[in-house]
Write the structure tokens for this entry.
Amino acid sequence: MLIYDLETAALEKIFNEWNEPTYRVKQVWQGLYQHLYSSPDQFSNLPISLREKLSQEFTFTPFTVKTYLDSADKSTRKTLFQLPDGNPIEAVLMRYGDPADSPSAPSPLPEGEVRMGEGKKRRTLCISTQAGCAMGCVFCATGQMGFKRNLTSGEIVAQVMYYAQMLKERNETVSNIVFMGMGEPFHNYDNVMAAVDRLNDPNGFKFGARRLTISTVGLVPQIKRFADEQRQVNLAVSLHAATDAERLAIMPVNKKYDVNEVIEACKYYVGKTRRRVTFEWALIHGVNDTAEAAKKLAERLKDLMCHVNAIPLNPTRGYHGEAAKRQHAQIFKETLEREGIPCTIRMRRGIDINAGCGQLAAYTN
């Protein structure tokens, strides 16, 4: 049994069966999520007999690290994990605010990229929620590999713990977590929310909900459920096209939930939570990067509290579309802003190691 799959109540029940005092649960919980222990041997405040029992009954690491790759500029690390059943998953660490990100020392940008201010020093994790993905977005490498299985809540949490332990060795901490890795988080809703709750636990990892972001392709019932739960976690919706014909051509999910249904669900979310929704837009040359595309999008988003995050398309093996050119990306942004829709052009990161948005597919070259 993976220890990260347990809530405190479940751990208390087990410890009661072992005739262990209740306060031991708090010691284990703090060891896992505050001291970031990754082995029973590290729990020096527990009796040796209990440490041995923990070792016998629980798994503390649900995967093996097969390999990792660092981007040429050292801002991004992608790690390939293998689960016990052989399924691979990938997770990414992105570093922001280091000297290389400073405007005083700009690095050359590939064609199609627009630099944005990175702000203060941040360590952002991009975490997977499934092995593969069933959504089939044509430009996404994970969608191209198909769906394997859902991850458990503990397997999701363990990715965060892996990087948190790594950063602790450098006297650094995780600052943001985005569920934008492999998989559709809302297709694995219950496990993802259980992982969110465990990470947010004030007696455990104590990670603020507003520093968490969940990305979805637009599963309407789950967006409404998420809204009804009144969570403080950020919501991002992958839209990428403003008409049904255009969206269906690149996102099969549009056949089930069309653009209007997705937008209406987002309005419901904003109305329920009074929180802004972010729309993600992969800028594809000649497909959705024109002023006309921006005007169509602005019309859809009129009077909705939102923000558009646009990023030039990252290359994948199974899709031959190209990233928007720098000039087109800027025109797209300016057109939206003239229509009253705030827009940011994001800097692409880690594309030399296939670690950028839409590139995760458990291959390393």
User: Anything to note?
Assistant: The chain has a mean pLDDT of 90. Residues 131 and 148 are 5 Å apart (CA to CA). Residues 153-168 form the longest helix (16 residues). The chain has two domains: 3-57, 64-353.
